[in-house]
Amino acid sequence: MSAARVFVARLAGCSVFDPAGDKVGRVRDVLIVYRQKEPPRVVGLIVEVPGKRRVFLSIGRVTSIGSGQIITTGLINLRRFEQRGGEVRVIAEVLGRQMELVDGSGTATIEDVAIEERGQGEWAVSELFLRRPKTSASPFAKGVTIFAKWSEVRERSTGEAQSATQLLATYEDLLPADLANALLDLPEQRMLEVAEEMSDERLADVLEEMPESEQVDILGHLDDDRAADVLDQMQPDDAADLIAQLSDERGEALLDLMQPEEADDVRMLLLYAPDTAGGLMTTEPIIVSADTTVAEGLALIRRHELAPALGAAVCVTLPPYEPPTGRFLGMVHFQRMLRYPPMERLGTLLDQKLEPVRASASAAEVARTLASYNLVSLPVVDDNHRLVGVVTIDDVLDYLLPDDWRSHDDDPSPAVSSDTSTIPVVVSSGRRHLNGPSH
């Protein structure tokens, strides 16, 4: 091995390569098992491979760890990872745990875990990086850090839930969809703890990427005020879909606690059947007047918080400019704006070929229109030709894919390569530990 001792938090996100240099995936966690008289043994890595599938990589298959990358023998079982009894994920379950120092000097929180090679293919926990409680009342103060061997600490017996702060710090750079997948892999109680520690905006982004059943579970563990704040941060169509899964009583209570403008958008969306354009649309497109200039339009679509599909075009209407607007005049695609001088009026650049769909149009009709004209968004109008929203391509994909598409994957057919040193393949019907039980 190129490194005999590494810290687990630094492994998160590291690329995994086969001997030929082809990227296999990224490390998402390290799996250990406790032992009675010795430090925990490392049994393998949890690796995310293409398709967001998380698989188990036995530590015996790892030939090199160093320089921010991991080299394997090229043999990987692509069956989805399932945690077994006695196995513990370091990042998901150990970081942030409160420990007592056996010398009686107090408690400390685990911020990182060092693992080291004890022999060929044998790795174990060697040291803990700990932070003591802060001694200053300042909100910016932090406790001192120390290193300790596993034998020098023991778990607290108070039974209190471990902090999720350190785990969130490890997940800080993940995109919402990847963070949602990471949370779904956690034990339910741990997932709820982490969700409670998130900011409203971050939790809203993550909920939008989760299956509805998990959305409902997480929202069910939040008090009404916090749940309403999170719903305020969600896209109106996603918030409406989530509220539709709740009881009428709680849904109405949360709508009453939401910001009035956000609640009005959600209430309007709840009027439409879920398999119609009105049920699929979002009520927050970019809406401007015909006198708006190209420069102003481009400035609006540059906003970093704007979803790419919503930034692909702007809608031009008569006043008012909030859905339901005045009469819908047309759309201007951003590529067309790029071809004209900054002071050109958007009213002269309307796409005359694009017809909006009615809110009552079926999801199938919306999908056909998007596909036929190679669009990423489609305006939706009411019976009076007032703009009420737009349907984006991701809204349609969410509808067309199976309900469990976020967690669904077809097991690949086993394959055996004549050059197993360079191509990751399925090597058995189940995962197998080094010197351990088959999975």
Automatic annotation (TrEMBL):
Residue intervals of the CBS domain: 281-349, 350-407
**Can the keyword Membrane be found in this entry's annotation?**
no
Stored Pfam families = CBS (PF00571), MgtE_N (PF03448), PRC (PF05239), SH3_actinomycetes (PF26205)
Q: Which PROSITE patterns match?
A: CBS
UniProtKB keywords: CBS domain
What InterPro entries does the database record attribute to this sequence? CBS_dom, CBS_dom_sf, Mg_transptr_MgtE_intracell_dom, MgtE_N_sf, MgtE_transporter, PRC-brl_dom, PRC_barrel-like_sf, SH3_actinomycetes
One GO CC annotation, please? membrane
Q: Which GO terms describe its molecular function?
A: magnesium ion transmembrane transporter activity
Asked if the Swiss-Prot or TrEMBL record annotates the protein with the keyword Glycosyltransferase, the reply is: no
Superkingdom of the source species: Bacteria
Q: What is this protein called?
A: Magnesium transporter
